[in-house]
Amino acid sequence: MKTTERGLLTEAKVLAKLIELGASVLLPYGHDHPFDLVVYEGNRFVRVQVKTARDGTDKGRANGSVLIPACSVVDRIGGKVSKILTADDCDVIVGYHPVLDRYYCLKPTGQSRYQLRTEAPRNNQTRGIRLAQHYELLSLIQIFQPPE
């Protein structure tokens, strides 16, 4: 599947998930926005950037983690421009992992990617580890109050 097609499928899956959770979802007109969807509730709007998550690897082998990219790529004259997403661009990043059929929600903090652990590290490290279960999108509350 081409990158654009995979991205569109991921956006459609996240849109359906948000509606399933009871969200009012707005779609921006045009392209090259730093967000893909807007969730509206009451008098609050939340800009959502959607990303396709994948398995994390170490030397080509799965390492018990999910990687969520956090860069936007825009076609410009002269080539593609990549930019790390920050809170100025969107309020929340939702990563969808198509193999696991799971959705993860987090606040953009200026990293180029986010690694969420689906398994505990073999060395039992806990400091700096983000467990995927804490970021799994199960309720709209997470869209309005995403974990960091």
3D structure, described in words:
The chain is globular. Helix content is 15%, strand content 40%. The protein has a five-stranded mixed beta sheet. It has one domain (3-144): Trna Endonuclease, Chain: A, domain 1. The mean pLDDT is 89. The chain has helices spanning 3-20, 141-144; strands at 24-26, 37-41, 44-52, 54-58, 61-69, 71-76, 79-84, 92-97, 102-106, 113-117. Strand 2 (37-41) and strand 3 form a beta hairpin. It has 148 residues and is mainly β.
Essential attributes:
about 150 residues; mainly beta; Trna Endonuclease, Chain: A, domain 1; 5-stranded mixed beta sheet; about 40% strand
List the helices and strands and how they pair.
Layout: H1 3-20, E1 24-26, E2 37-41, E3 44-52, E4 54-58, E5 61-69, E6 71-76, E7 79-84, E8 92-97, E9 102-106, E10 113-117, H2 141-144
Parallel strand pairs: 3-8
Antiparallel strand pairs: 1-2, 2-3, 4-5, 5-10, 6-7, 8-9
